[in-house]
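Recall from the previous lesson that a structure prediction takes nothing but the amino acid sequence as input. Here we apply that procedure to PX domain-containing protein from Huiozyma naganishii. The sequence below is the only information supplied.
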Amino acid sequence: MSCNLTFLPPEPIALIDEDDESETTTDERDACNISVASMSTYGISNRRRSNSAINSNYNFLKAQVSDCTLMGGHNGGKFAVWKITIVLQPVSRDKRAAAATPQIHIYKRYSQFVTFREELLEELHEIKEEAVRVQDRERTSKLMAIKVPPLPPPVPWYSYWQYQDVNMSKKWLMERRRGLEYFMNYVILNRCIVENCKKVILSFIERKDG
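The prediction returns the following tokens.
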């Protein structure tokens, strides 16, 4: 993390508050139940998932966005850092290997997701341009079909005067968490995105910047 960041005293954040459940709409409850299995609804089949390889030994299995930690910046403001757990699946069909599901734990803030998405779009754009240049119609057609999903929205401009209150509210954080989790799963479980943007994805996972 940047040297301009300081840890605040632990602040418990209950993203699902049982006391407020009566006020939660049906749509909100359904949205909380988005799972990896539902990826097929968005064109990511199980077959694609099995070929979404991080390297010759492991496939991406799923991503979970969980713990949210509030941190303080040099200007006195706060921002959230999210824990992301990426679960891997061994390529080997050996029983011992199949029983192991290694996990990668990384921590990212929303702005880093924004940069990650921009890098994905830029990489895909450059690859598409190259495919068009060499007149590879089949590859161009496949690349044109790749969609990178949007991220959960930032605080709207008309709420900036109360930015900290909006950005740190439990409901806002809950919606952002599931939006970030959906985005991560869509990206790492999509074979076409992984095959074409593997360097960008691995850079996001390995980067330690704050």
